[in-house]
């Protein structure tokens, strides 16, 4: 789209502003805490305007998940993909994850950990979307580990090492939000270092 | 109390029935999903009767956390304490945790993981209570690991090993609820085995 009229530009800006606010709210209060009325009030937009963008609460929740996925990709995945494949990329992915949680890219800590727990035991489209992101993330980690294995830099089952690293990230994120301190990050960093050391060849 | 009158017994039975339902609801829908109205309807008790027991939603939430802590202690902690201190107790605690999640002692999976994520980024008495349970649990794990270290059965920093084991449990619990399969438990069991193997002396 090279030329867009004013309404389309404004519509797109509104949509982005709504979703940026929505991901922040959901990272603290959950996707259930999102309501079109609340967002309209907070952003000074009409409810009918918001309905025109999202149609229903579930549509808003699904759009919020997609927006959070893009922010997550920018913060965690893309910087790691700029590093050469292999052990360095595995290390970079871990650093980016801890940094993403520590600097509160989302004010409530990891968006996906928060809302995945919220919807894990429920059915529906939101659950399916979150299960899909989790699967995609674990496969990406596994691929990044496998590159290091294929280069002979690590001796490990890729899925198993990906499981362990992700477990350290998640445990650190929860401990840090719950206790308001850095202890979990220090512990996770040591665990990541030791786990990669034990798999190094 | 050797002799109690009928009203006290019935009051205590009502309280137990309410809390047993409340922990199950909260493990799926969260502590925010608890309401005195909903519980009264589901259990066929009057709202005023429930108010007499709990006073406020926050009191009900705090009582639900205490009830869940007792169920958790019965399922995970007490069976491990029946085993001799040392590496066997560390293994038993891990087995009990995986079993506790797998057989859905709470229908939504681990109660504490669920509601800790719900309240991690909020303030207040519920947050404080959950942070307290998390601290207590991590200290207990650390003590159990330290016994094995003191007996010369493991060479590890107790807090670090406790962090790792707990991370595997939590990651398995989330993966299992989100994907409705056992893969996470299998991965966690291998991770626990390998981690204890690497720390064995």
TrEMBL record, chains A, B:
Pfam families: TetR_C_13, TetR_N. Residues 12-72 form the HTH tetR-type domain. The keyword Plastid does not apply. PROSITE patterns: HTH_TETR_2. Gene3D superfamilies: Homeodomain-like, Tetracycline Repressor, domain 2. It comes from the Bacteria. The keyword DNA-binding applies. One of its GO terms (molecular function) is DNA binding. Residues 35-54 bind DNA. This is TetR/AcrR family transcriptional regulator. It comes from Kribbella albertanoniae.
């Amino acid at each position: 789209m090279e030329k867009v009229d004013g309404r389309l530009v404004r519509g797109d800006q509104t949509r982005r502003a709504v979703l940026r606010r929505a991901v922040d709210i959901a990272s603290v209060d959950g996707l259930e805490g999102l309501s079109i009325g609340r967002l309209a009030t907070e952003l000074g937009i009409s409810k009918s305007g918001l309905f025109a963008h999202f149609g229903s609460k579930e549509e808003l929740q699904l759009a919020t998940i997609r927006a959070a996925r893009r922010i997550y990709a920018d913060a965690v995945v893309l910087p790691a993909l700029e590093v050469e494949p292999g052990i360095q990329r595995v290390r970079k992915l871990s650093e980016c994850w801890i940094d993403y949680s520590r600097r509160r890219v989302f004010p409530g800590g990891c968006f996906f950990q928060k809302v995945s727990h919220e919807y894990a035991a429920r059915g529906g489209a939101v659950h399916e979307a979150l299960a899909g992101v989790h699967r995609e993330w674990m496969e990406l980690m596994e691929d990044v580990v496998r590159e290091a294995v294929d280069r002979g830099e690590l001796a490990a089952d890729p899925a198993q090492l990906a499981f362990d690293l992700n477990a350290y990230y998640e445990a650190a994120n929860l401990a840090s939000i719950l206790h308001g301190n850095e202890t979990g990050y220090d512990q996770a960093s040591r665990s990541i270092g030791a786990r990669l050391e034990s798999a190094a060849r």
